[in-house]
Each structure stands twice: as structure tokens, then as C-alpha cells.
Design brief:
The protein has 696 residues and is α+β, with helices and mostly antiparallel strands. Helix content is 19%, strand content 22%.
Length: 696
């Protein structure tokens, strides 16, 4: 082995940092007894040097190696007690990646030597593995600081109420005919002109990317010939996932962000700080477990061999520990300050807010975010649930957070499916779910409304399948949600019946029109605007194939045009995207109510009617600059054609039909000749006022 000199170095900056003359290494471990820095050959196949970190300052171990070059491959071996019953799983035979590494070299291999225990032992994880894992794991890389120099100015439109587009880096472009082959499935591919033009046509102002932190394919999936396609299995919180690299490599991620900003599109990252890829007590030792299992993870009280599994993913990251919390905050700042992103969607965010006494919106993690001068200015979105005790916390997050509103999704699906008593709840969802969010000064945009997301049926499958079809996941169809509130419209799956196809297409238009006409922040699943299907798979997390890749060749061009119309309508009418909750209060400027509910005949709506299914909604907006806008929306869930009575206008102006889900093309926009207007069965229609008028 090559012998190099190592001096004490600095403890105040974790990770490996090249300063022009050498590299400073610093890592956290509270319970280790010895940490060795391991250097590797350029191809990663040979360990060429091993040296103990010479200094410890508090729980930070550190050292400086003069003359070490950019691109050096390294890892760590950590000594300490191997007593799983006490929560300690140190094993210096296992090469560990740096928790702060920004680049990886090499691939993860599904091999038993990456386990800290002897798989053949009857004691399983209580046994100790002497096997060296180095040949089977990637190496950390000493990064070129120039790759990460200079801050990137994001758009940071906190409180924006326009369209979020949830997309998978690979899935969006893998089959796009206008994306060059070498860019398909890459960060660079996302910002090809054809994709940008598509997003602009939809009015997208923010793209929310499914996980791009470096992640690992679960061994049980690899054993089945599958992969972790979604990426909710993070191992590197500072490193972009290499499988999405294009010709530019790592720098391609930053170029992607810059290109989106040039196109006036925010970049939001779906981040997974609630658990890691190391799994439960039977999982591999890759990084955190080997550095300090008892600090990085929440362990069961009195049974520290086992992990708290509030996430349902084998382990739970212990963000209550100050150095684990520091790592998460350092990671978030890195993606904002260095990579330029505009915000984050926190996966299973309830886990991050759970203290010893339960979920706490004023807990340490949230307090740290709110006082951080960098993070306090970016967009933050919570997935407000996990499977732990008191895990469903929709509406309970701090005021700075928006929240994924699954109640919105389920209610809208149930209404259009025809479920009894769903109309009453739909009323609340259309107005931003004030019953859950209108407190402590929160705004209506905190409700992120969606009718489909990556987890569950696509919108097309919601209208084509009554049951999930997940057999390709090789879990006997037991995985995935059972409560999909879907409706196959008469026949399951792919059909040729033109009548049912027409019903399905109109149902999709109804669902989308409801989404775009609701107060709050709309989110569209990539591909739903094209009629994309996953063939009934509602949990395609392991389908890195045509099941999950968007099929651009089979896109429904009429549906795409309709969604573009919806987006244009929403942009043009502030009445349907107001920042404040609407409660029927009168505007002081004109004494008009901000919202009114009526039946199809124009009479006050009878909310207690158990058979209520059809209704009308009028929303009005008056801005500080005296800008005004009024939209009248009719929901006809019955199969019969109806006539709707339009609200009375006492001054100049007239109602004009601008949206109609019974029509697939551009609406002619005829002005109503009388107060009665026909609307087709099973449809949504929106009218707007054109010309000045005054109401009583």
C-alpha cells in the first residue's frame, strides 16, 4: 500500500474538500473507536493506502492529506463495538461511502459480502462478517470544487398557484421521438426544446422531479430481475443519481436546472430524508449503519437490534440527532445554493416531524428549516403522512409548507364515479380545502391538488380499471393501494368498444377540468395529459420499462389540446386561483359575494339533500387594482342533458361559454342569448363574464 502523510486537518466542514494543495476529510461518528481513510486506484479495483484519521473533535473525526489530487477514489472503514442488541453494528471489513460524497465511482453489486453479518449463520444479523465488501461497492470521489463553485439563483416563487408537473427523469424522455437517443432518460434530455415546448404549452411553472439523490436497487428486486425505478431508496444525499447522467456527466444536472430557469420553470426535488437504502436489521452496511447505527437511525426502545419502521421501508432516519439533522440541512442547502433548485417535496414528511411525544409542527426539524436563511425562502411541500402512530397529518404542517392533498384526489374520483354523499365533500375540495388548511393565516395555495400521482393509477387507468393489476411486480398482486376509487366504465382494461372509450375520455376531461377549476395549487402527473397508461399497475415502483416510460407515440392529441385549454383558462382567470380562502364574504368594493353555490335552476343549493349530484359554483375576484373576474361553473354528473340558469347580470356584459368537457376541440365561445344555457350530461361547463357589468 502507498504511504501518505496525514495531518489533523479541520473539523468544521464535513465531507472531502480539495483546497488546491490537498484534501481535508471529516466525518461524524459518536461511538466509533477508530476510523480509517482508504484510498483506491484509479479504476477502483485496488486499495492502495489506508490511514487512520488522526484527530477527533467532539464526534467529528478529521484529517488532511497533502498532495492528494482531485478525482481520488476513497472510502472509510470504521471500528467500534459490534453489539446489535445495543444498537451498534460497526464492522471495519465493510467499506463505507462518505455520507457527504458528491460523486460515486463504480456500481453497487448485489453480493452477500456487503452485509455486516454472515448470511449463512443461524444467528443472522447477530453474527459478524469478516468478508471485505470493497470489491462490491462504489467508491466516493474527491470532487473538483469548480464543479460546484458559484451560487445559482433560483426562481423561488413561494406561494405560486400555477401548475406543478410531477415527472420521472428517465420516464419522461425515454421514448420521446424528438429527444436525441444519447439524451433520452438523462438530465439533459429533460430540457430538450421539444420537452420545454410541451411544458410551456401546458402552462407548467414548476417541474417536480421524482428522486434524483443517488439511490440503490433493493436486493430483493434484483433477485427478481427488477430495479428500483422510482428511486425512493437514497444512499447519497449530496450526489445526483448517476444512472441519469448524459454526455456532460454530473454537470448535466446543473445545466438542466439553468435551462429550466431560462424557460421560467422552477425545479422542485422529491427528497427522501425519512429512511435510507440500508433497510432493516437484515440490510447491507453501506454507509450510515457502519459509521454509527445508533445515531443515524431510530431504534426500538429496549430492543435496539431492531429499527423503528414508521416509514414502512425498514428503517427511519433519526433527524432528532443534531448531526443527522445537520446532514439533512447541509444537503438541502447544497441543492439550493450549489445546484440551484427552487424547492423540495418531502417524502413521508410526517416522519421528519415526529418527536418522542409524536408529530410536532414546532419540532426540531421544522424549527431548523424556518430559521435557516437559505431554506426559509424556498418552496416546501409535504407528503403529510407515514405509517407510524398518528401518521396522517394532512393540514397540520407549519404554515410555510404546502401539502399533497390526497383527500382532494379521492373526493374528485368518488364524485365522478358517482358515489353517494361525495358532492358535499367536493364543495370543500373545490375551494382549497379550507376545512383543513384555513388556520394560522395559511393561504389556499397550500393545498396541492391532484387527481393522479406517481403512486397509484394514472388518470387514464383510473377510468379503465376497477382493480389493480400489479402481477409484473412479482408480489402476487398484494402490493399497491386497494382503495383507488376508480371506475372502468363497464369493462376492465384495454377495449375496442367505441362507446365506452368515449365515456372514459369524457370522464378524464371531467377530472382534469375539476382540477384546473379548483382553488389551490394543481399538480399534473406527467403523461396524464397524453392519456398515458400503466396497464392497471398502481405501484410501478420497480418497472423500469415500457410500463412506466411515457408512450409519446400513442398520445391522445385531443386530450393534450384540451389540457392546454384548461391551463390557459386558469392563467387568464384569477377567480379560480385566488390566494385567500373563499367563504361567501361580500367584497366591500361591490358588495358581491366571493363565492355562491346554486342548483341548476339558480336557487340556493340544498347541501343536506342526500341525492345531491348536480350543482353550480360562482367565484368572483376583485384585485387591489380594481381588476375583477367572475367565473360560473356547472357540474352535471347525471347522464341527462340539462339546462342551467346563469346568474343575473344587472349591467352591461354577458356570459360566454369558455370550457365544456363535452367538446374535445376549441370552444367557439358563444355568448348566452338568455339566462338559460344547455349543458350535456356527465360534463363540466365554465362561463365567464365579458363586458362591464354591475351586480346587485
Amino acid at each position: 500500500m502507498k504511504r501518505l502523510a496525514i495531518t489533523s486537518g479541520r473539523f468544521d466542514r464535513l465531507g472531502a474538500h480539495h483546497d488546491g494543495g490537498g484534501v481535508n476529510f471529516a466525518v461524524f461518528s459518536e461511538n466509533a473507536t477508530r476510523i480509517e481513510l482508504c484510498l483506491f486506484s484509479d479504476d477502483g479495483s485496488e486499495e492502495i493506502s489506508r490511514m487512520p484519521l488522526p484527530e477527533r473533535t467532539g464526534p467529528v473525526w478529521h484529517g488532511y492529506v497533502e498532495g492528494l489530487e482531485i478525482g481520488t477514489l476513497y472510502g472509510y472503514r470504521v471500528d467500534g463495538p459490534y453489539t446489535p442488541e445495543a444498537g451498534h453494528r460497526f464492522n471495519s471489513n465493510k467499506l463505507l461511502i462518505d455520507p457527504y460524497t458528491r460523486e460515486f465511482f463504480g456500481q453497487w453489486k448485489n453480493h452477500p459480502d456487503i452485509l455486516g453479518y454472515d448470511l449463512a449463520s443461524p444467528q443472522l444479523d447477530l453474527s459478524f462478517s469478516p468478508a471485505d465488501s470493497a470489491p462490491h461497492v462504489p467508491k466516493s470521489v474527491v470532487s473538483d470544487p469548480d464543479l460546484f463553485s458559484g451560487g445559482r439563483c433560483g426562481l423561488h416563487r413561494r406561494g405560486a398557484r400555477d401548475l406543478i408537473y410531477e415527472a420521472h427523469v428517465k420516464g419522461l424522455t425515454r421514448q420521446h421521438p424528438d429527444v436525441p437517443d444519447r439524451l433520452r432518460g438523462t438530465y439533459e434530455g429533460l430540457t430538450c426544446d421539444s420537452i420545454i415546448d410541451h411544458l410551456h404549452a401546458l402552462g407548467v411553472q414548476a417541474i417536480e422531479l421524482m428522486p434524483v439523490h443517488a439511490f440503490v436497487d433493493d436486493s430483493f428486486l434484483l433477485d427478481r430481475g427488477l430495479k428500483n425505478y422510482w428511486g425512493y431508496n437514497s444512499i447519497g444525499f449530496f450526489a445526483p443519481e448517476p444512472r441519469y447522467f448524459g454526455p456532460a456527466g454530473l454537470i448535466g444536472f446543473r445545466r438542466m436546472v439553468e435551462r429550466f430557469h431560462e424557460a421560467d420553470i422552477e425545479v422542485i426535488l422529491d427528497v427522501v430524508y425519512n429512511h435510507t437504502a440500508e433497510g432493516d436489521h437484515r440490510g447491507p452496511t453501506l454507509s450510515f449503519r457502519g459509521f454509527d447505527n445508533a445515531c443515524y437511525y431510530r431504534l426500538l426502545s429496549g430492543q435496539k437490534r431492531y429499527y423503528v419502521v414508521d416509514t414502512g421501508c425498514g428503517n427511519t432516519l433519526n433527524v432528532s440527532h443534531p448531526f443527522v439533522l445537520r446532514m439533512v440541512l447541509d444537503s438541502l442547502r447544497f441543492w439550493v445554493d450549489t445546484m440551484g433548485v427552487d424547492g423540495f417535496r418531502f417524502d413521508l414528511a410526517t416522519t421528519l416531524g415526529r418527536e418522542d411525544h409524536g408529530f410536532d409542527p414546532n419540532g426540531g426539524f421544522f424549527d431548523a428549516l424556518r430559521q435557516d436563511p437559505v431554506l426559509a425562502r424556498v418552496r416546501m411541500i409535504a407528503e403529510p403522512w407515514d405509517i407510524g402512530p398518528g401518521g396522517y397529518q394532512l393540514g397540520a404542517f407549519p404554515t410555510e409548507f404546502s401539502e399533497w392533498n390526497d383527500r382532494y384526489r379521492d373526493t374528485v374520483r368518488r364524485y365522478w364515479r358517482g358515489d353517494e354523499h361525495s358532492t358535499q365533500e367536493l364543495g370543500a375540495r373545490l375551494l382549497g380545502s379550507a376545512d383543513m388548511f384555513d388556520h394560522k393565516g395559511r393561504r389556499s395555495w397550500v393545498s396541492v391538488n391532484f387527481v393522479a400521482a406517481h403512486d397509484g393509477f394514472t388518470l387514464a387507468d383510473t377510468t379503465s380499471y376497477a382493480h389493480k393489476h400489479n402481477n409484473a411486480n412479482q408480489e402476487a398482486n398484494h402490493d399497491g393501494h386497494n382503495a383507488n376509487f376508480s371506475d372502468n366504465c363497464g369493462i376492465e382494461g384495454v377495449i375496442e368498444d367505441t362507446r365506452i372509450i368515449a365515456i372514459r375520455k369524457r370522464r378524464i376531461r371531467n377530472l382534469l377540468a375539476t382540477l384546473f377549476l379548483s382553488q389551490g395549487t394543481p399538480m399534473l402527473l406527467a403523461g396524464d395529459e397524453l392519456g398515458n397508461s400503466q396497464f392497471g399497475n398502481n405501484n410501478a415502483y420497480c418497472q423500469d420499462n415500457e410500463t412506466s416510460w411515457i408512450d409519446w407515440k400513442e398520445m391522445d392529441s385531443e386530450l393534450l389540446d384540451f389540457v392546454s385549454q384548461l391551463a390557459a383558462f386558469r392563467r387568464a382567470h384569477p377567480a379560480v386561483r385566488q390566494s385567500r380562502f373563499l367563504h361567501g364574504h361580500r367584497h366591500p368594493e361591490n358588495s358581491q359575494k366571493d363565492v355562491e353555490w346554486t342548483d341548476l335552476s339558480g336557487r340556493p343549493l340544498q347541501w343536506r339533500d342526500p341525492g345531491l349530484s348536480n350543482f353550480c359554483l360562482t367565484v368572483r375576484y376583485t384585485g387591489a387594482d380594481e381588476e375583477s373576474d367572475e367565473v360560473f361553473i356547472a357540474f352535471n354528473r347525471s347522464a341527462m342533458r340539462q339546462e342551467v340558469t346563469l346568474p343575473l347580470l344587472t349591467g352591461p356584459g354577458s356570459w360566454r361559454r369558455c370550457l365544456d368537457t363535452d367538446q374535445t376541440g376549441t370552444i367557439a365561445g358563444d355568448h348566452a342569448e338568455s339566462r338559460l344555457a344547455p349543458i350535456a350530461g356527465d360534463s363540466v361547463v365554465a362561463f365567464v363574464v365579458e363586458g362591464e357589468h354591475n351586480s346587485e
